[in-house]
Design a protein that fits this description.
- By secondary structure, the chain is an alpha/beta fold.
- It has two domains: 2-144, Response regulator (Rossmann fold); 152-258, OB fold (Dihydrolipoamide Acetyltransferase, E2P) (Beta Barrel), CATH 2.40.50.
- The protein is 34% helix and 30% strand.
- The protein has eight helices and 17 strands.
- A hairpin with a 7-residue loop joins strand 16 (232-236) and strand 17.
- The longest helix has 18 residues, at 104-121.
- The chain is elongated.
- Residues 123-130 have low confidence and may be disordered.
Length: 261
């Protein structure tokens, strides 16, 4: 069986590969691809997969955008960390999902369900073919999950609460398991959200997660330098005091985002 993994969390992708190799000896695994952009580019070239494991929230936005850009006729098992609306929609539409962190027994059941559904998916093509319910499910999810991107944050400052508008934010970053919001005028606040939670609530046209530690505002980026081993180094204003490096694998997507693509 030929399986594609689309997942932006490195540890989750590694675990998925390990479990699939245990449960499906001899399977051919491809990926992981961690962005909508890279996934679309790959699926335009390679389409002969038997199954796709697809994370809902990727590094540059929700994976539903893949289905807007290209037609996918391969059965999909979605993975999600926290989205209760997605889980309800998957149940209603009889499309399987896995809740992260991935459980081996549940993955085994998903694979068994895939085999039973294989005749249903068949080899048809197009939205009107055997994958029709997959597209109906995606449309349902889009309606249920019409994202209202945050336009402000209410943060603690001593005994007070201070509103911070989205255009005042330079970046979000994690340090010692604490997430900080840094404003353009150099104010720093601790916030309760994780970077993963922030990704789903921030407008991807305005913010980009460059690595596991930083989500940057495009307005705060002053320069981008070429760095060792084809990585990129970002110069942010104000300087958070921590080196900001874009990995080689994220470099192309970051440049495309910076270019407004």
């Amino acid at each position: 069986m030929k399986i594609l993994i689309i997942e932006d969390e490195e540890l989750a992708a590694v675990r998925m590969k390990q479990l699939l190799e245990e449960l499906e000896p001899g399977c051919e695994l491809a990926g992981p691809f961690d962005t909508v952009i890279s996934s679309i580019a790959h699926l335009k070239e390679v389409r002969d997969y038997d199954l796709i494991f697809l994370d809902i929230q990727l590094a540059d936005g929700k994976s539903f955008a893949i289905f807007d850009a290209i037609q996918v006729d391969t059965p999909v098992i979605f993975t999600t960390a926290f989205d209760e609306y997605a889980l309800q929609a998957f149940d209603l539409n009889s499309i399987d999902y896995l809740l992260k962190p991935i459980n081996k027994d549940k993955l085994k059941l998903s694979l068994e369900k895939f085999r039973k559904m294989k005749s249903y998916f068949g080899a048809g093509t197009g939205i009107g073919g055997p994958n029709k319910k997959l597209y109906e499910m995606i449309d349902s999810l889009k309606e249920k999950q019409s994202v209202q991107y945050k336009d402000r944050f209410l943060v603690n400052k001593g005994d007070s609460l201070v509103p911070v508008k989205i255009n005042e934010i330079a970046c979000f970053y994690a340090e010692d398991k604490v997430v900080f919001l840094l404003t353009i005028d150099k104010r720093r606040f601790i916030i309760p959200q994780t970077l993963e939670e922030l990704e789903s609530r921030l407008d991807p046209h305005l913010f980009f997660r460059v690595n596991r530690q930083f989500i940057l505002s495009g307005e705060a980026i002053q320069k981008v330098h070429n760095y060792f081993n084809f990585k990129l180094k970002v110069e942010l204003v104000p300087d958070p005091g921590i080196e900001i490096i874009v990995s080689r694998s994220r470099g192309a997507d970051f440049k495309a985002w910076m270019n407004g693509e």
